[in-house]
Structures
1.
Amino acid sequence: MTAPAQNPANNIATADLYDERGDELASVSLQFQSLGGRSHFSGAVRTIRCFQDNALVKSTLATPGNGNVLVVDGGGSLGTALMGDMIAESAVANGWAGVVINGAIRDREAIAALDLGVKALGSNPRKSAKEGAGEVDVELEIDGVTIRPGATIWCDPDGILVER
């Protein structure tokens, strides 16, 4: 597996970045868990909106990530996992910096061992549907914060900041 290209911004603390840039950045106050092996990650945003169906997550993370971060709005559902270890391994192999999921993952111990940033609300061993329902590269709103494809996102154990 190939690790995502190292981005110098990956080691920037979100608290320091907010102190520096202030209202240029939106802060997501929803308490995501840090579940990947990479604690600090950042990059240009790609987006998916889906609900308890991870086919688009799987197919997107199987494409070249170029150090980007995939933000998935699963509607906050913890009913099924939107990413497991095999999809996360694909993300690493394809050069994604990280994944933020407004929903659940599974295989959290295996994912914690990967060089991938992962933020999610929690975990559930239950598989999701695989029908491809959802939308790719659309504007999302999570916790009142607008997340646009192409914007920069920064994540660390303190939280998530997004370019306005």
Note: The longest helix spans residues 85-93.
2.
Amino acid sequence: MSNVNNAELQNNGKKTLVLALVAGMCGNALLSWMTISEVAFSVFPWIALVLSVQALYQEYLRNPIPEDFPLVGLAAFFVGGFGHSAFVKAQYPDSGSNFIAIVIVLALLFWIGKKMGYVLKEAN
């Protein structure tokens, strides 16, 4: 991946990455509500999920997607999901350990940082 593609990925993709992160968090919030009895129902994850998916679709229609970006977006989605899972399990320790979720989040964040050019920058 060249420097031009890295710059293009950083400029066009930040909004999409944040929307994918929010969609992952909302998806996990809905899953947590259905599977963990201590988590109360809230309508806000539904609203945020619908709005973030709609905004992701509109962004997809407006801007071309670089070739490596779908994997980075999927990784951001999983960061949101596993991050929210770790947060919920920290709040309710009886629901299980959050160690695996934290390790997955850190590994995915490192990989995203490397793909976006923030971590382990190559010298030219």
Note: Residues 3-35 form the longest helix (33 residues).
3.
Amino acid sequence: MRVIGLIGGMSWESTAEYYRVANELVRERRGGYRSARIVLTSVDFADVERLQATGDWAAAGELLAAEARRLEAAGADLVVLCTNTMHKVADAVAAAVDVPFLHLADTTAAAVQGAGVRRVGLLGTRFTMEQAFYRDRLAEHGLEVLVPDQAGREVVHRVIYDELVHGVVRAESREAYAAVMSELVERGAEGIVLGCTEIELLVGAEDTTVPVFPTTRLHVEAAVAAALGE
């Protein structure tokens, strides 16, 4: 089994999901006492959030590239960045190591295409929804991407940073997200990409009428498949 390297802490709430799901999947597929071989580096999210807020993406890329090198030195055979938003600096992270870097948007796009969906609604932080780095990566796979209107984007972003990254899950926020997803479906979305790793703590397939693509689980599934040589 190859060693999965996880760059986490953005936030640790979602990183815990990466660790849990990876081990569950290995146990399901290999049985017995089997568990995933993982090395994990977890950054202080306050440092990353400050760089996000000031728009210093170059420094953020350097910070995460250093963590990727740390994982490779610790024996990682592949690197996984446990956050959608920070895939804005994915090129810097991938270039820092000689082992494969598993891009979250690519694993998501593969699942969307596999479901026969071409037009998706995207939920995430305002960086992910409003900037081109993520939408363009999905578009490279032939997908059309819709994002919420400004009011919807503000709601989605606020809930992530004020609630979900702190482990707070509220019923009223779930209802607000359901309304945003409904609006995207009305505009023609054939599926919804949960493009922030924390969003899966709040909503799922039961909250909308179209297929949901949970990026955290899809990313972990791809990492485990690579680790097991599937």
Note: Strands lie at 4-8, 38-42, 78-81, 101-102, 119-123, 144-146, 191-194, 212-214.
